[in-house]
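Purpose: get a first structural picture of the assembly so the mutagenesis plan has something to point at.
Setup: two entries, given in the order below. No constraints added.
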Amino acid sequence: MSSQPEKPQVPDETLVRRAQRGDMDAFEELVARHRDKIYARAYSMMRNEDDAIDLSQEAWVKGWQRLKQFQGESSFVTWMTRIVINLCLDQLRKHKRQRAESIEQLDEELGGVERQMPTVTVNPTAGLERTELRARIDRALGQLSYEHRTVLILHEFEDLEYKEIAKRMQCSIGTVMSRLFYARRKMANLMVSYKREELS
Amino acid sequence: MNEDQLLQLQAWMDGELPAEEARRVEALLRTSPEAEALVSELRVTKGFLAGNEPEAKVPETRDFYWSKIRGEIERSAAAESAASAPAPAPAWLLSWRRFLAPLSGLAMVAFLSVLSLNLYHRAEQDPMQHLVEVENLDETIGSISYKSQSENMFVVYLYNKDQNPDMDEDELFDDQVLQ
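Result (structure tokens, whole complex):
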């Protein structure tokens, strides 16, 4: 049985150009290609499936509406990721305004807990398979406050500089540095605790 | 170490420090095992996060997920075109229109009345105001004008030149008559 040669995939750039001319089928193809990535970003920030679905879909709608503004300075999926991040940040700000901050949360924001943590000297992820490592990272992200989680995602996964993160999170660079520092410290210690769980 | 130093260590690791400050941090790292241990931990954390972002898949089928996006795109496009069309008058304005239409007619009549009265009074004050120049082309008819400011009066007397050949209108236009 001879194998069929694989049909070459149309590049994103071509689909974007077609979508910019109003071709909705081309846009649907872009959605199908990148929907998991956009959803995953929304989920990592919101930690809620329903919010992640709604916000990722809203991001695609905004993407269509602003498609003419896309000049190709970054990749299409990077551009879309920025849109969904901004929507998530807006939503998180609304949530934050609505809920009363507990003393514990304020303490965490200031790094009160993380300040007391011992320095991690051994890599707590050594020997883990990638799937397991990702699962543990996901679990640890879920245990961070939204401020710590967001700054970590924007810096480590989106490769944004302090200045850019401060702009997006509407806070000072000093606050970004502080949040990132304590988010990393907490993440390291959480990974150590998961390692201990595994061994016990 | 104080908090500023901790954050400086992190900024140095992230490559966000200017050269001079970076040199100061490097000097600290050479002398402080605590600083060195902390940077090591930060590096480990950065390392295991890199490229290991948790993955997630949309928990909906492609068609269902897309149908909601498409529906929203179409709805907002329809709303946009409706917003750009001229808005119909609100219901309350339509119901008021039957009262407002006769009222506007009355207002117009009142306005014209006031205007005409105003013109009439002006004419009373100065009879010359709305006089127009009339050229007499008939050589057989002569005219004599008389104006009195005190009486608020202006009179034009027309006569047949053939019947009154002695009347000379130039003579009649003296200062006294025209005053």
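The radius of gyration of chain B is 50 Å.
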